[in-house]
Amino acid sequence: MVKYFCCAGLLKNTWDQVCVAFWQRYPNPYSNHVLTEDIIFREVTPTNCLISRRLLTKTSRAPRWMERYLPKHMASSAYIIEDSIVDPQKRTMTTLTWNISHARLMSVEERCHYRINPENGSWTEIKREAWISSNVYGLSRAIQEFGLARFKTGVTKTMKGFEYVLAKMQGETPSRTLAETATERARETALAAKEKAKDLASHAQKKQYV
């Protein structure tokens, strides 16, 4: 049994900008789990399509109940193969990724198709499909549900990372930076309030015993 998932995304940037950002999207604040990226091979076809294969190393913390099925040295990392083809004539980009680590436990295949949005030529739409499967007897359904939930979370981070890189490429202030600034200020305010409260509480206790 295979769990299938499909969703659509929209980036308010041109197809050319998205293609450039695709190769520059690591690192970004939403991809701290991506440790390394290596090009295995790259070639241009007679029809001027760019074909690439990359190896990605990612952290992949498994839930405790799943760790018992993994070797200790493999429980916190995963290797991902990413194939891609960019067609400048059709103005499409298609990627296919799949894990080569823990594949017997859980296999996740993802296919993304990038094309110009038919309603707005300055935007890019993404069709994302995923197939999640597991052959672990008695646990396949639970593992697939876990994989699907993690995949959906990953999609959200991927889109935010894309938007971050695109904004940075265009010299804009990425929304993540603004959010981090607001969070930091809120944290400083909270800490200051906490220290003031502790000081007030300390004085209050002294008054009770004087």
Automatic annotation (TrEMBL):
Record PROSITE patterns: PRELI_MSF1
GO cellular component: mitochondrial intermembrane space
Domain of life: Eukaryota
Pfam families xrefs: PRELI
Residues in PRELI/MSF1 domain copies: 2-174
PANTHER family (UniProt xref): MSF1/PX19 RELATED
Protein name (record): PRELI/MSF1 domain-containing protein
Originating organism: Oreochromis aureus
